[in-house]
Design goal:
5-stranded mixed sheet; elongated; disordered N terminus
Length: about 350
């Protein structure tokens, strides 16, 4: 059975199923004989079985309940109401929603066919039963199928956003790992050889051993400086380029992004760019945003404001925001985050 992604949608399906049982219930209660209570029992069995199936229970429970309802419900009620045809129509309508693959349509057609057979044995009028079952089934498919399809698309879009954010983080880690490997791989190999050579020459040629040891120390110091430069380059990013990259990522995720940006450079640009990365990750992973606004202004202070809609979770400061706050505070700036309705605002202020 397909996953039903939303509680509200599941509630709507319950209501739709119960609505399809209204006419059979009225028909059964109008039965003059004592058999009416068997009909009520049959309707109760299919109602409970559907609730169990919709909450993740096995599908055979519903199939068995529908089969059991035939001898309990079909013989009772006024013939002009075609009592069991409504149950068969509901089964035919929900079959494509609960099953997957070609079985869904075979089961839907089977529900209409069984309704016709029941009608033939009860009233010798299979056509009316089949028309009612087909009409009820098509109505259920039209009313419930489209919302379920949209809910499935929403789930896929959310999974795509999370995967895209994780991919961006993984690519950045790989890039930095490649940079460090390129810097250190050759240098560490040479340092190891120099140290080994110095050890072998320590007794036979002390002066050359000292020279090789000094060379190993120089190479180690040089490698350390290069790593520091690489880390500084990793942190010192271009704000304009980062804004453009964030805009492209958000637009590819289906989020309308508008940017108002002033020219900022130096350490201020680095701090804002790092904060913007975290803000973009929050938009992609922790919201269902449809729009995002980025505003960078320069006056007596440098101020960046990132605002987006679709913020569903209660406001809580995670590790990402806390890290941004610590870095900006070290530069004498401030970070504030607030949520109003479903609109989330992150503001970063750095003194000029």
């Amino acid at each position: 059975m397909n996953d039903l992604p939303h509680t509200a949608l599941r509630g709507a399906l319950h209501l739709l199923w119960m609505s399809s049982l209204v006419v059979p219930l009225v028909s059964v209660l109008r039965e003059p004989s004592g058999l009416r209570w068997l009909g009520v029992l049959g309707l109760l069995v299919v109602a409970v079985a559907f609730a169990v199936t919709l909450r993740g229970g096995p599908l055979w429970v519903l199939v068995a309940a529908v089969a059991v309802s035939i001898p309990l419900v079909a013989p009772v009620g006024p013939d002009e109401l075609s009592t069991w045809a409504w149950i068969g129509g509901a089964a035919a309508g929900f079959a494509p929603l609960l099953l997957s693959g070609p079985w869904r349509w075979l089961a839907a057609i089977g529900g209409v066919v069984v309704s016709g057979l029941v009608g033939f044995f009860v009233t010798r009028d299979h056509t009316t039963y089949q028309m009612i079952a087909a009409s009820v089934g098509l109505t259920i498919i039209a009313m419930a199928g489209l919302p379920m399809w949209f809910a499935g698309l929403l789930g896929q879009a959310r999974a795509g956003r999370e995967a895209q954010a994780e991919l961006a983080v993984s690519e950045e880690r790989l890039r930095f790992a490649r940079d460090v490997h390129d810097l250190l791989g050759h240098r560490l190999t040479v340092i190891a050889l120099k140290a080994e050579l110095a050890g072998r020459l320590a007794s036979s040629d002390p002066s050359r051993s000292a020279a090789e040891a000094f060379e190993a120390q120089r190479l180690a110091s040089s490698a350390l400086e290069e790593v520091r430069d690489a880390v500084h380059g990793y942190r010192a990013v271009d704000l304009a380029g980062q804004i453009e990259a964030v805009r492209n990522v958000l637009q590819e995720a289906g989020i309308r992004c508008t940017v108002t940006s002033a020219d900022v450079s130096g350490e201020h640009a680095t701090q804002l760019a790092l904060a913007l990365r975290e803000a973009c990750t929050n938009v992609l992973r922790h919201s269902h945003a449809t729009w995002c606004m980025i505003d960078v202004s320069v006056g007596s202070e440098v101020r960046m404001t990132v605002t987006n809609d679709g913020a569903e979770k209660p406001l809580a400061e995670g590790n990402g925001i806390r890290g941004v706050r610590d870095r900006v505070a070290a530069a004498g700036g401030q970070v504030s985050a607030e949520k109003s309705g479903d609109v989330f605002t992150l503001q970063v202020v750095v003194p000029t």
